[in-house]
Every structure is written in structure tokens, then in C-alpha cells.
Write a structure and sequence with these properties.
Elements lengths: L5 H17 L5 H6 L4 H14 L5 E10 L8 E10 L2 E15 L2 E11 L3 E8 L2 E8 L11 E10 L2 E3 L2
Antiparallel strand pairs: 1-2, 2-3, 3-4, 5-6, 6-7, 7-8
Length: about 160
């Protein structure tokens, strides 16, 4: 087997590093919106833009399309975070079809609840929504929460409620 000389290896390594550095970073929101069609992405982006107020910004952590109430119409479940200054706050929202006009679904915000902690993880089973987050434990530094928080809601009558 031939060995590559160290000069050629360094050039190849530099090229690979350059390619990796040139690639746009993948944002969590890109992952959250990846499974949606173009229309659904626009709905979520419009919703997030509405949430960003007073210099804040908002991004999606997770989005799922699921018929929560069994009416044959899907709802969009959005876990999102708003960022303002050095702080952030996460929320869980359900967007529902308000009406259908000219064959297009017109979405509205049906229900929103605040979430405790960071790094929200969403799981849906039927009408039950579960979100796990991390929050500060008694000995945690402010940067590094380790205590897991588990919360559940049911979607009934167009609202998120305790199960």
C-alpha cells in the first residue's frame, strides 16, 4: 500500500476543513421545519414572526402535524423559544385550522402554554402532549441545568389542559 506524503495529506486536510467551514450551519429550527411542506413552513414562520416582539426573536424547536382531537383536521404543535437580550423562554403552542377558504387552510393559534426550562423535547401520543425540559437543580451553575422536568397536557375543546 502506498503512503501519502505529509505535504499532500496536509493539503487534503486543509481542503476538508475549508469545505466544512464554508457549509452553512444547520440550525435547530431548520431541523424542526424540515418535515413540513412549504405551506406549513410559512404558517409556522408567520406564527414565530408574530411572537417576536420588542426586539425579541423566536425560533422553532420542534413542530409536529397531528390530528390531536380526532376531527379529521390536523393541528400543528409548535415548541418554540423566544430570545430577548441574554434570556430566553420556551412555549408550547397548538395551531388549528380556523376555517378553509378557497381550498386553503387558514390557521389560528388555538392554545399556548409556557414551558419551564430549556432544551424542550416533544412527544405526542393521541391527544396527549409531553414535553421534557432541563432546569436548574440546587447545585447547578446558571449555565448548565441538569434537573429534568416532565410536563403533560391533553388537547381538548381547542385548549391545552392538564390530563
Amino acid at each position: 500500500m502506498r503512503r501519502m506524503n505529509s505535504g499532500a495529506g496536509a493539503v487534503i486536510a486543509a481542503l476538508l476543513v475549508g469545505l466544512i467551514a464554508a457549509a452553512p450551519p444547520v440550525r435547530a429550527e431548520d431541523d424542526a421545519l424540515a418535515a413540513l411542506d412549504a405551506g406549513q413552513r410559512r404558517v409556522v414562520q408567520k406564527f414565530l414572526a408574530k411572537q417576536a416582539a420588542d426586539g425579541a426573536s423566536a425560533s422553532a424547536d420542534a413542530v409536529r402535524v397531528h390530528d390531536l382531537d380526532g376531527d379529521g383536521q390536523p393541528e400543528m404543535v409548535v415548541v418554540w423559544t423566544s430570545y430577548f437580550g441574554n434570556s430566553s423562554a420556551s412555549s408550547l403552542s397548538v395551531l388549528a385550522v380556523g376555517r378553509i377558504s378557497d381550498g386553503k387552510r387558514l390557521w389560528r393559534e388555538a392554545s399556548t402554554v409556557p414551558l419551564d426550562g430549556i432544551d424542550p423535547r416533544l412527544d405526542i401520543r393521541g391527544a396527549a402532549l409531553r414535553v421534557d425540559t432541563l432546569t436548574l437543580g440546587p447545585k447547578d451553575a446558571r449555565c448548565c441545568p441538569t434537573r429534568k422536568v416532565h410536563r403533560e397536557w391533553a388537547y381538548r375543546g381547542g385548549k391545552l389542559a392538564a390530563p
